[in-house]
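Appendix B. Raw example, untouched.
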Amino acid sequence: MKGKLVSTEIPIQGMTCVMCQGAVTDALKGLHCVIDVSVNHLAYVTYLPGAVTPVEMGKAIEDPGYHYIGKEGEAGRKMRKKEQKDRLFRSILGFSVGVPLMIMIQSGIDIGISMPHFMFYDTTLMLASFLTLGRFLEGRVKGRTTDSIKNWWGSAPGRPW
């Protein structure tokens, strides 16, 4: 392979689990002249320019059903920030409804609905709230880790290549 390799970061929306990361990794690795792919909060792609374009990478990301945001920039950061606010709001809302509901059901307060039919809704609501809170915390940690690595990498005195 001739030419200089290029590394880029591609923000992707819609990934929620390790299986999603694997699907995006496989899609990008399937492109011609993509040398290395690492997917976490972003897709880090090393490729040979001219042989594959960012548009082709975007199409490969969108084929399995994820959203290609484009080059990392202000729009990507704003979108991730909005997603994080939505997750936090949903988890707070879920807990603010789920906790009182759980207390009422456990203490036997009659809420006007047949208890056997309503009994597991509190558990379901609390589980969904915990999962959403977990996704919020995971996104927060991933964002901070990515920023820290970028700052560290940018402050390195010299690179061996």
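End of appendix B.
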